[in-house]
Amino acid sequence: LLVFLGLALPGTQGKIISRCEMVGILRRNGFEGFVGTTVADWMCLVKYESGYNTKAYNNNGPSRDYGIFQINSKYWCNDGRTAGAKDACHISCSKLLNDNIEDDIRCAKKIAQEAHGLTPWYGWKNHCRGRNLSSFVRGC
After folding, report:
1. Which CATH architecture describes the domain 19-132?
2. What is the pTM of this model?
3. What are the protein's UniProt keywords (predicted)?
4. From 41, 65, 103, 104, the catalytic residue
5. Cβ atoms < 10 Å from Cβ of 67
């Protein structure tokens, strides 16, 4: 019973992707220069949004954020509970909570492309925008 309860709790621990492993994933998936961003921007975003946790979850009241990029259920994914959800990435939010982040990557890039940058993410706006982020990729 405790195992099942642990899986259902918000913020449940998923795979924590190491810093350099995440840098490699972002580089291989074309994030450097994508819509004017850098891998360092994305690394900072992921750190402050999810702490590199693939199963990160945050309840925002009427909507929820899911996965390593904290993708919101009001606009981007379908959790079956968010009134007026748009589901612009055409994905179940639950698919953003596993260790395979390929679908998370596709949706995050769609969000950034539509926004022409990373402004939809408050973690990036509040902690990363306009700062020297070289430490996020240094040594990787």
Report:
1. Orthogonal Bundle (1.10)
2. 0.90
3. Antimicrobial, Bacteriolytic enzyme, Disulfide bond, Glycosidase, Hydrolase, Secreted
4. 65
5. 26
